[in-house]
Specification:
With 431 residues, this protein is an alpha/beta fold. It is built from 15 helices and 20 strands. Strands 2, 5, 6, 7, 8, 9, 10, 11, 12 and 13 form a ten-stranded mixed beta sheet that branches. It has a three-stranded antiparallel beta sheet with strand order 14-15-16, with helices on one face. A three-stranded antiparallel beta sheet has the order 17-19-18. It is globular. Bound molecules: S-adenosylmethionine (SAM) and iron/sulfur cluster.
Length: 431
C-alpha cells in the first residue's frame, strides 16, 4: 500500500496529473494528419503476434501460429499501412523494428510482402532490426532473413544453462543454441544481439559469470541482459514463490549485473543501453527508443508528440476491424507537455546518455530549467556526469535510476497489457 502511495505521489510530481487515463477515443484522420504536419522523422514498429510455443514467463501479446490466421493478418497489416501512406509522404523513416511474439514464424508466410510494401511506399532511411527464435535460425532461414533487409538480428537465447532453459520451458539445449549463435554470427549481419535473462530462480553468480564468458567466446556483437521479471498475469509469475523484499532483489540484481559489466568491459564491449553491452565499433541493435514512432499490428503502439495510442491486442478483432475499414485503435491518451517531457527523459535515461540541446530542440525549453536541479543531485550522488550539454549515466546510475523507473513502469505495463489481453476493447484504463 505504501509503495502504491509513493508511486502515485512521484508520478503526479513528474506528470502533474492526478490520474492518467487511457480512453477508447480513436484519433481522427484529420487530427493525425495535423500531428504529422510538423514531424519530419519517425520510427516504425511492426508487431508479429505469433509464436511456435508459448513460454510461461512471457508478458508479450502473442498466440500460437496458425497458417490461416497469419494469412489474414498479412492482409490486415497491409490495410493498416495503406491508411498511413498519405500522411507519411515526405517523412523520413529512421528506424524499423519488427518484434513480437516471434517475427520468424512469418518467414515465407507474408512478412516479406509487408516489408516490401513498407519499403515501396515510405521513405525508408534505415535497415530492419528484427527479433528471432533460435529454433527458426536454420541455414536457409538465415538466408531469407538477410534477403528481406534485416541487418540487425536479435536471438532470444534466454539462458546458457540447461536447468534454466528447462525452468523457462525453452525447446532447445545449450549445445544446440550455441551452434545456432555461431551460425548467425558467421553471416553478414551488422549486429547480432542475444537476449539473456538473469536472476532466474536459484541462479548462482558463477552461472552468470559462465554465461557472460560464453557470450564473449561465441563472438556475439551485443548482449541484452534483462533481469527476470515476474509478470503477475503469466503462468510462472503466478506459480513461482514470491520474490522476497524489493530492496533485497534490487541489490542482488545489481551484483549480478556487475559481474556481467566486468566481463564485457574487459572484452572490449561498451554499455549501449541500461541492459545492453555492444562490441566497440559495432552499431547497436535497438528496440523502439526513437522519440516518435508509429506501430502496426495487433498491440502495436504509436507515439506522435501529444498522443499515444495502442491497437487492440486481440488478433481476430484486429483483422476484423481492418477488413471492415475501421480503426484497430483500442486505447489512446492525450499527453500534456509535462507528460511528454517526463516520457522523453525516461527513454533518454534508458539509453544512458543524451544531450540537453536535443531536449531544447524538441520542447523549446532549457533542459536545466526543468530538470537541472534533479541532475545536480544525481550528479552529487555519483549517478551521472552532468556536462554542459551531455548527460552520461555512470554504471551505478544506469542501474539504480533505471531500477527506480522500472518500479513505476512495471506497474503501468501490468495494468495496461493485463487489461488489453483480457478485453479487446477496454472502455478505460485508469492509473
Ligand atoms: C519477443 S521475445 C524474443 C524473440 C522470440 N520470441 C524468442 O522468445 O526467442 C523478447 C525477449 O523478451 C525477454 N523476456 C520475455 N519475458 C521476460 C521476462 N519475464 N523477464 C525478462 N525478460 C523477458 C526475453 O529475453 C525475450 O527474448
Ligand atoms: S518469449 Fe518469445 S517465444 Fe516465448 S512466448 Fe514470448 S514471444 Fe513467444
Amino acid at each position: 500500500m505504501l509503495s502504491g502511495f509513493l508511486r502515485n505521489k512521484i508520478s503526479r510530481h513528474f506528470t502533474k496529473q492526478d490520474e492518467i487515463i487511457f480512453n477508447h477515443n480513436i484519433p481522427s484522420y484529420n487530427s493525425l494528419a495535423k500531428n504529422f504536419s510538423d514531424i519530419n522523422e519517425l520510427g516504425l514498429y511492426l508487431h508479429v503476434p505469433f509464436c511456435t510455443n508459448i513460454c510461461p514467463y512471457c508478458p508479450y501479446n502473442k498466440e500460437i501460429f496458425r497458417e490461416d490466421v497469419c494469412r489474414n493478418y498479412v492482409h490486415a497489416v497491409l490495410k493498416e499501412i495503406d491508411y498511413y501512406i498519405p500522411v507519411l509522404k515526405n517523412k523520413t523513416v529512421t528506424s524499423f523494428y519488427i518484434g513480437g511474439g516471434t517475427p520468424t514464424t512469418m518467414l515465407g508466410k507474408g512478412i516479406e510482402i509487408i516489408i516490401n510494401h513498407i519499403y515501396k511506399h515510405f521513405n525508408m532511411n534505415c535497415f530492419v532490426h528484427m527479433e528471432s527464435h533460435p529454433n527458426h535460425l536454420t541455414f536457409d532461414n538465415l538466408g531469407i532473413i538477410e534477403s528481406i533487409g534485416v541487418k540487425y538480428l536479435s536471438i532470444g537465447v534466454e539462458a546458457l544453462q540447461d536447468r534454466h532453459l528447462k525452468t523457462l520451458e525453452r525447446p532447445y539445449t545449450v549445445k544446440d543454441v550455441k551452434k545456432i549463435i555461431e551460425r548467425a554470427v558467421s553471416r553478414n549481419f551488422d549486429c547480432v544481439n542475444i537476449d539473456l535473462i538473469f536472476d532466474l530462480p536459484q541462479q548462482s553468480e558463477s552461472e552468470i559469470e559462465q554465461a557472460g564468458k560464453d557470450i564473449v567466446k561465441l563472438g556475439v556483437h551485443q548482449a541484452a541482459t534483462y533481469p527476470f521479471f515476474r509478470f503477475p498475469y503469466t503462468r510462472l509469475g503466478k506459480e513461482l514463490p514470491k520474490e522476497g523484499n524489493v530492496i533485497g532483489t534490487m541489490f542482488r540484481r545489481r551484483r549480478l549485473l556487475q559481474i556481467l559489466e566486468d566481463i564485457f568491459y574487459d572484452s572490449d564491449y561498451y554499455r549501449s543501453s541500461v541492459w545492453a553491452f555492444t562490441k566497440k565499433g559495432i552499431d547497436k541493435y535497438c528496440s523502439v527508443t526513437v522519440p516518435l514512432y508509429l506501430g502496426f499490428g495487433a498491440s502495436g503502439s504509436s507515439y506522435l508528440r501529444d498522443i499515444f495510442y495502442v491497437n487492440t491486442f486481440n488478433v481476430s478483432e484486429y483483422i476484423k476491424t481492418l477488413n471492415e475499414a475501421r480503426s484497430p485503435v483500442a486505447l489512446s491518451i492525450e499527453l500534456s507537455e509535462d507528460m511528454q517531457m517526463a516520457g522523453w527523459l525516461y527513454w533518454r535515461i534508458y539509453e544512458t546518455q543524451f544531450k540537453k540541446s536535443d531536449f531544447q530542440q524538441r520542447f523549446n525549453k532549457a533542459f536545466n530549467e526543468i530538470y537541472g536541479s534533479y541532475m545536480k543531485i544525481l550528479s552529487r550522488l555519483g549517478y551521472l556526469r552532468n556536462g554542459k550539454d551531455q548527460i552520461r549515466l555512470t554504471d551505478k546510475g544506469a542501474y539504480w535510476i533505471h531500477a527506480f523507473e522500472d518500479y513505476f513502469s512495471i506497474n503501468y505495463i501490468n495494468k495496461l497489457w493485463g487489461t488489453s489481453r483480457n478485453n479487446a476493447w477496454p472502455e478505460k484504463v485508469i492509473f
